[in-house]
Amino acid sequence: MTTHDHEPIEHLLKQALPATSTQPRATLQRDLWPALRQRLEQGGNAVPWFDWALLAALMLWVALFPRAIPVLLYHL
Amino acid sequence: MAALEPATDVLQQFSHGKVDAFESLFRQHQGDVYRWILRIVRDPAVAEDVTVETFWRIHRAHARFDPSRSFEAWARRIATNAALDHLKSTRPETELPDDLPRPPVPDPGISQELREKTAQAFGRLPPKLRIAATLAVIEEQPYQEIAEALGISTGAVKLRVFRAVRLLRKDLQRQGIEP
Asked: Under 8 Å CB-to-CB from B122, ≥6 apart: which residues?
């Protein structure tokens, strides 16, 4: 199969999915800054739940095995 | 993207985490980033969401930005990754809108049903191949720009396009369609 063989299927593809520049709403219709600012405010101070779970597991581990603290510090 | 490169001092301030500089860059580039993402995701509402996600990633990565390099190219690379993540997270069956946009010059030899089947088959392609074929074949973007946005060589882009078209042909042939 060569790229020449691809021409009919590329034509079909262009007919099925025309370039976005030829479609309505090809340009941005509104300012997205308010949405982004909201995202920044929400995400700026959020700590993922996984980080809290990891911290809790670490604290539990230290409480149960205090002798392991030097090993932990060594690996940090 | 047609926007001019921002002034160096704005880029410096952005790399140091100044929100005013970030907002200035956002306002200058949001339209271009949106258009680039729209070419990939092909849905205006999704393109808006992915644009916000892109600038959120840009903001988080400000410390890694080198002000001596092009902000435009860096933003486009992040936008492409965000759009790719969206395509990966979306099932192919939910990709297509109910009414497909019509081509500006419709080919009378291609029926609506054939267009729909082609669009559905294209939606089933692996996202990495789909992005390359969308940008190269449908949107007719230069291979060099696609390569920079995807972080691969132009040869790799051509290979992905070739594989995409070959897979699309095979999918259509399985349905009894011979383009």
From this structure: A13, A16, A17, B130, B133, B168
- Domains in chain A: how many in total? 1
CATH fold of B102-179:
Arc Repressor Mutant, subunit A (1.10.10)
Residue of chain A minimizing CA distance to B47 = A28
Q: Which residue of A has its CA nearest to B135?
A: A19
Contact at CB, A18 and B102, closer than 8 angstroms: yes
The ipTM, to two decimals, is 0.80
Which residue of A15, A28, A32 is in closest CB contact with B107?
A15
Domain ranges of chain B: 1-91, 102-179
Q: What is the pTM of this model?
A: 0.80
* Ordered mean pLDDT values, 10 residues apiece, chain A (76 residues): 76 92 86 94 71 89 87 78
Burial group, residue B111, by CB count within 10 angstroms (0-12, 13-18, 19+): exposed
Q: Which domain holds residue A73?
A: 48-76
Segment B71-103, tens digit of pLDDT: 999 999 999 999 999 999 987 655 555 556 777
Q: Check CB contact under 8 Å for B179 and A8.
A: yes
Contact B103 A36 (CB under 8 A): no
In this structure, which topology does domain B1-91 adopt according to CATH? Rna Polymerase Sigma Factor; Chain: A (1.10.1740)
